[in-house]
Amino acid sequence: MKTTFVLAISVLLSINLFAQGQRPRMPNPEERAKSTVTYLAENMKLAKQKQEAITPLFTSYYKATIEARQKQDQTGREAAKNTLEKDLKKVLTESEVKEVQKLLEEQRAKMQQQRQGEGRK
User: Fold this and answer.
1) At what angle do helices 74-91 and 48-70 cross, to 10 degrees?
2) What pTM was computed for the model?
3) Is 79 buried (19+), middle (13-18) or exposed (0-12) by CB count in 10 A?
4) In degrees rounded to 5, what are phi and psi of residue 85?
5) Per-residue pLDDT of the chain (121 residues; tens, 9 = 90+)
6) For residue 95, what are the CA distances in angstroms to 58, 88, 89, 90?
7) Disulfide engineering: 61 pairs with which of 28, 53, 54, 84, CB 3.0-4.6 Å?
8) Residue 81 and residue 55 in contact, taking contact as beta carbons nearer than 8 Å
9) Angle at 119 between CA 116 and CA 74, to 5 degrees
10) Separation between Cα atoms, residue 91 and residue 80, nearest integer Å
């Protein structure tokens, strides 16, 4: 009886660990901000000073969107996006802000396309 119980627990734990291994870990807001700024810097040739200035803006944006997502608050997401755009305009030129918006939209489209492709497999 004990061996059956231990075996059942072992199977349940291994299934749980296997299921957890299948989902990629969501990067924290700081990691996401760093990744985003690196992507923008590579594609826009942003100066180091501007990279350092916009990293905290993206960190705040990602924190706000995570919080809004957890609350299922679409208005909060929109507010975070608007705040990010307003803050970027304080640091970047108008043409740089437009380029950021364009690159991020392209990146979102690629990610959405990848997600749709994964769902069909």
Assistant:
1) 170
2) 0.73
3) middle
4) -60, -40
5) 556 554 556 555 556 555 555 556 778 999 999 999 999 999 998 999 999 999 999 999 999 999 999 999 889 999 999 999 999 999 999 999 999 999 999 988 988 888 887 655 4
6) 18, 11, 10, 13
7) 84
8) no
9) 60
10) 17
Report domain extents, the chain: 27-120
Biggest alpha carbon distance in the chain? 72
**How far from the centroid of its chain's Cα atoms is residue 99's Cα?**
19
